[in-house]
Design a protein that fits this description.
Blueprint: H1 2-12, H2 19-22, E1 26-31, E2 33-34, E3 48-49, H3 51-63, E4 67-68, H4 71-76, H5 78-84, E5 87-94, H6 97-110, E6 114-118, H7 121-124, H8 130-140, E7 143-148, E8 151-156, H9 161-173, H10 177-191, H11 204-211, E9 216-220, H12 233-251, E10 257-259, H13 270-278, E11 283-289, E12 303-307, H14 316-322, H15 324-329
Parallel strand pairs: 1-5, 1-12, 2-3, 4-5, 5-6, 6-9, 10-11, 11-12
Antiparallel strand pairs: 7-8
Helix pairs in contact: 3-6, 8-9, 8-10, 12-13
């Protein structure tokens, strides 16, 4: 039903009616992984695109008059961006090695500025990539049983693997750190797992090389990609400052931009906005879907983004960029912040 609805909206071009009112002047694009199709998981939808897809997006947007700019340019020239409109900022979360191997050559080829928000445990080699472990459980089981506040929940992994992954992810993120570790260990023990350790992350040497290119801005994404709302105020601020300081020491430059892990209203709100300010950042981005308007100059620590989708929900891309999605989801409120 969702796919049919999206197809109808896309074919009729209904989203174009929203652009003058909800398209804003700038869209901050959210990416995670950029790698060839044969390596994608197919479950964690919306987090992986292929190099060919990204290149086609860059070419198509450029032909249509869009301009790719850096976060710093946006910050320093906000009024000019507002007048000009059709600006795009490319951001990539976490620090995956394929960003360096596959995305970076494309950004160089087309002279596209980009920001990578680094989780320091990635290049440190200590990251717990729990989302890939959950995906491996979904791939290994037909049905998954979990205990929640509502009782035992039966998840049909064979019928709807993406839905199963989303349910497991939602439950996992609702838990504290110790509970998360026990939950994951129990799942992998009961259902088995095909998860294998591999080199997912960039090294500090690769991050340093990127930082020396004027196209690249290195931002911060905490030390361990944890949910800041599950930490005390002091713990959350310490985590943000530690990640910022380590990254600055590694690249020899100030780190002025931050991305909240997960970034929904449940993980980043008023308190986290204040913490990002106190930690010394100039901007912070969320995963709320929306475009930028003049009013966002007063909300630089809760900037919305637009995820770039490939595959089943690829038709969402023009709907996101037009502002249609955020208009309907936010009851026609233009400025997406809290």
């Amino acid at each position: 039903m969702k796919k049919l609805l999206l197809a109808g909206i896309d074919n009729l071009g209904l989203y174009r009616l929203f652009t003058p009112f909800y398209g804003g002047h700038t869209s901050i694009i959210l990416l995670h992984r950029v790698r060839p199709a044969q390596h994608t998981t197919g479950i964690d939808g919306g987090h992986e695109v292929t190099p060919g897809f990204l290149e086609a997006f860059i070419e198509e947007r450029t032909r249509c008059g869009w301009r790719f700019i850096s976060l710093d340019y946006l910050l320093d020239n906000f009024e000019e961006c507002s007048r000009r409109k059709k600006n795009l900022v490319i951001t990539l979360d976490d620090g995956y090695q394929d960003n360096y191997r596959h995305a970076y050559p494309l950004f160089q080829k087309y002279r596209v500025p980009f920001t990578i928000y680094v989780t320091t445990s990635f290049p440190d080699g200590t990251a717990d990539l729990w989302w890939y472990k959950l995906a491996s459980v979904v791939n290994s089981a037909e049905e998954i049983f979990i205990n929640s506040d509502e009782g035992t929940v039966v998840i049909s992994a064979a019928v709807d693997p993406r839905g199963a992954f989303r349910t497991l992810r939602h439950h996992f993120l609702s838990l504290g750190r110790e509970e998360q570790a026990h939950f994951l260990e129990d799942l992998m023990e009961r259902y088995g797992s095909q998860y294998r350790e591999e080199r997912f992350a960039m090294s500090w040497d690769e991050i340093l090389q990127l930082s020396r290119d004027e196209l690249c801005t290195i931002g911060s994404h905490t030390t361990s990609h944890g949910n800041l709302r599950k930490l005390s105020r002091e713990e959350a601020l310490r985590d943000m400052v530690l990640a910022k300081c380590e990254t600055e020491q590694r690249i020899g430059k100030p780190v002025l931009h931050f991305s909240y892990p997960y970034g929904t209203e449940q993980e980043a709100s008023w308190r986290e906005e204040q913490l990002a300010r106190e930690a010394g950042f100039k901007t912070a981005v969320t995963t709320r879907i929306g475009n930028l308007f003049d009013e966002h100059i007063r909300h630089l620590y809760l900037l919305p983004r637009v995820p770039l989708q490939q595959g089943a929900f690829e038709r969402l891309n023009p709907i996101y960029l037009s502002g249609m999605y955020s208009a309907i989801a936010r009851r026609f409120r233009r400025v997406v912040t809290h």
